Amino acid sequence: MSAARPLATLRTVAALAALPLLLTACGYGSEATDDGGKQTAVAADAKKLSADEVSIGYFPNLTHATALVGVQEGLFQKELGGTTIKASTFNAGPSEIEALNAGSIDIGWIGPSPSINGYTKSKGKNLRIISGSASGGVKLVVNPEKIKTLDDVKGKKIATPQLGNTQDVAFLNWIAEKGWKVDAQSGKGDVSVVRTDNKITPDAYKSGSIDGAWVPEPTASKLVSEGAKVLLDESTLWPDNKFVITNIIVSQKFLKEHPDVVEAVLRGSVKTNEWINANPDKAKASANTALEKLSGKALPADVLDPAWKSITFLDDPLAATLDTEAQHAVKAGLLEKPDLKGIYDLTPLDKVLKAAGKPGVSDAGLGAE
């Protein structure tokens, strides 16, 4: 999910430190990583903004391609002038939220679930969502020998990345809408929901310990490369086939003290998304180059190509879908009804969009006063 609410509190379905409910929407595991605080080169005569440096965080994942490509192509640095970018990468939403809260990063690309969780735990004090970044890129993929129709999912073992993460909540909601019963905590019921780290889901599929998975890209396409079949694209369940998968968040302290830097990063994000959409093949190659630098391994074409096609890069945070995702978590019993009023501050984004001749975007009534 993508939003958070001041009154929202996670149920004690797990100890706060032990079980990161509402983890990452697009994460690849539960351990954080860091790229060593990579800094982007700055031209000698470039003029600094109000901060000498801005620290940004994101995941080495295609759903965070705005950050990957924007850094790789120097599009953010161009807007920041003499203010240096310090980039760090994470593999888990809670780690990125902790870094934001600690001041280790100022701005982050992150999924809806950790956005909600971070906002909720801080009672609305620490972060704001300031832009969207990506939509889509989540699929139900299955063993075609065992599952041929959606109704065949009943009685099968289906993996999700983690208890309470965005895909887990989406799958639980889909199950409920089918009229099937599953205990959210244990995953037992008419469908066996098997919480499995995305990094090992392909091996679990090959071994036969799961019959399919509701997962983000590129895990879905990795499974397809192993013989799985796409049974459902989650985007088809949403109005206009769009739902938030990646947000841009900022520390409220940094937003207050350095609004010019935040605007510059948002200009970079808007221009990066524009470049991605105008040059999809070049952008895909750029994102893969960045991934290879960060992980040591590029994605093969049979994984990269279909994964890339299923993700939409956009500036709109799709706030209404974030609110709906939070409601799904409440319905599943994983979140007490939250108050997400104030999670968004889209004023800087609207300023950037207006200057670029683009229409503003909606906060669905969840904007800061």
From TrEMBL:
Gene3D superfamilies to which the protein is assigned, alphabetical: Periplasmic binding protein-like II
Predominant localisation class: membrane
PROSITE patterns documented for this protein: PROKAR_LIPOPROTEIN
Keywords: Cell inner membrane, Cell membrane, Membrane, Signal, Transport
Signal peptide extent: 1-17
Record has Zinc as a keyword: no
Compartments it resides in: Cell inner membrane; Periplasm
Keyword Protein biosynthesis: no
PANTHER family: ALIPHATIC SULFONATES-BINDING PROTEIN-RELATED (PTHR30024), TAURINE-BINDING PERIPLASMIC PROTEIN (PTHR30024:SF47)
Family indicated by similarity: Belongs to the bacterial solute-binding protein SsuA/TauA family.
Protein name: NitT/TauT family transport system substrate-binding protein
